[in-house]
Amino acid sequence: MNDVRVLLIDDEAGYTDALAKRLGRRGVSVMTAGGGAQALEIMASSPFDVVLLDIKMAGMDGIKTLSAIKRRHPEVEVVMLTAHANTDIVISSLAMGAFDYLLKPADLEELVRKIEDAAMRKRSNSK
Predict the structure, then answer these.
(1) How confident is the model at residue 125 (pLDDT cuts 50, 70, 90)?
(2) C-alpha 58 chain-centroid distance
């Protein structure tokens, strides 16, 4: 998975740092962003295969960020992360083009599988 580039977007710095380190030990190349606006700036100059996106964030929330990502980078697959299983928000994000969602804290093995699946879909859609 060394060739899969992931952007982790969450406003909880402790969570993003810990998850980025855990994913890094699994061979995932991870960058982090503390919010939607910062993520869009990073994505303007760096390509990513998969975005892990928290739904509940201060400022630009996950739904607005998802919308902007899909508008500017439709080829990027987005996995939504949420600590609150709100069915309406999850359905809305999937309808907007999110690849899937996971409840936080996500099981690391399951998260790695989602990243792999999302990266495979991106590559197959890019051909």
Answers:
(1) confident
(2) 16
* pTM value surpassing 0.70: yes
* Closest C-alpha among 87, 56, 53, 84 to residue 70: 53
In the chain, the N- to C-terminal Cα span, in Å, equals 19
109 with 22: CB under 8 angstroms? no
The confidence score (pLDDT) of residue 83 equals: 85
Per-residue pLDDT tens digits for 27-63: 999 999 999 999 999 999 999 999 999 999 999 999 9
- 79-105 burial string, b = 16+ CB within 10 Å, else e? bbbbeeeeeebbeebeeeebbebeebe
Report the b/e string of 7-43 with b at 16+ CB within 10 A.
bbbbbbeebbeebbeebeeeebbbbbbbbbebbbeeb
- In the chain, what are the domains? 5-103 (3.40.50.2300)
